[in-house]
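Quick one, T. Sequence first:
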Amino acid sequence: MTISVKHILIGFFFVLLTCFSNAQDRECRLGLGGSTAETIIQVFQLNEEQIQKMNEWTAELKLSNKVYQDEIAQLFDTHPQSKTEDLEALATKYKVLKDKVLANTREYDLRLLELFNPKQYDRYLELCATANRIPYKIIPKIYPSGNPE
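Structure tokens:
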């Protein structure tokens, strides 16, 4: 196979991946587990309990997603990619693993959101609206002393 054909097939593969997008791409995610921890703390003015839980959950999320990330790496390293059918199969398998990562991340985002007080949740809703994203629906936590700040 020539380089140009391979590049065309790889390009086709990425087009297939984008065709698999769905409502998850519009969800308003916090991005727990990414490099956004400090931003989350500052934007939502998290209290100590929230920060502690967020740090615990971030560590858990990274461990649980590592399994899927390793599977994705192995998939790309070992799956045949020489024919269009191979790339279509690869895209399908990748989407399944990607959806598992997104579902896992969503679960941890929801956990943190459930610790938000009404003011923090309102801020989240405002940011989601600004970004034209669909917010997760939760019932904000009422703290005995008022705001957790």
